[in-house]
Amino acid sequence: MNDKTLLVGPQLVGDVGGTNARFAVARMVDGRPVLDHHESFPAETYPTFLEGVAAFIDGCEVKPTGGVIAVAGPVTDGAIDLTNSPWQVSESELQTLGLKPVKLINDFEALAWGAPIVPEAQLESLGGPVDGDPHSTVAVLGPGTGFGVSALVRDAHGREMAMPSEGGHACFPPGDPVEDEILRILRRRYDRVSIERLICGPGLLNMHRALAEIDGRETHIDDPAQITQTAMADPNSPCGATLARFCAILGAVAGDIALTTGARGGVYIAGGIVPRILPFIKASPFRQRFERKGRFKAYMSEIPTKVIMHKHAALLGAARVAFAEAEG
What we know:
The chain is built from 11 helices and 13 strands. The chain has 328 residues and is α/β, with parallel strands linked by helices. The protein has 2 domains: 3-113 and 312-327, ATPase, nucleotide binding domain (Nucleotidyltransferase, domain 5); 119-309, 3-Layer(aba) Sandwich (Hexokinase, domain 1), CATH 3.40.367.20. Strands 8-13-12-9-10-11 form a 6-stranded mixed β-sheet, with helices on both faces. Strand 2 (20-29) and strand 3 form a beta hairpin. The two termini are 13 Å apart.
């Protein structure tokens, strides 16, 4: 924190996904962001994004002067068309609400800024050492409505830069004959099978149906939540097999992302699914598939993998960016 931080007013921070929108007012205390006036509502509550933000600000006793809103999709020229939502957003529209400066960033970019300041008590280990290299890149990824990927790059002088990406739309990499067959089945439906076609809520359903076809059985499940609930109650059921395969592929993908970004600082798993299946994923092949990288197995074994249990980690990251922007 520098002297300018003391002059910066409260900042609006938001985290808007395909399903829900979360907002808070952030202030800086002893160099760390603190979140007040939390509010969360389904995205469908308001016809437009601007109406949702305006309603939140109207309910704030202390009005924010600027802000950063994290959104689920790529930001282009200060605007976004949300990947899994009908809402459209632009920074210029948000300025009409009296927010200056105001910035839109990718939701997983916000998580990249937020992950390193999440308290250790709100992280759960999925294997590897307790701490990664503090001077190396950190990767953040996770399944929810879609599949997000980002990284926080660090240099030798301690400077950090978040790297947003659309890594969830990279190609799905099968790791064994069963996954080869899953890919073959999904190619009948999709011209190109991305990671997100399997590793997210709707993707879990795709995987369950593909595995049923491979096994020669019918399935009438049409809700991903039913798969996870049944799997948690009976890991030996077909739903349990689906969720185990989901965790295994997530581990393999997380390992590929760690290799691609050089994330020796650690890999953080975010998103809405993994915190709800924590006991299951801890007993799954996740870490085995994460480390199964041939000649780089020893390299991978030194990278910690952790689940972010903090519900507002993206808001913490957005707050870090908001205060940096306000300070100029």
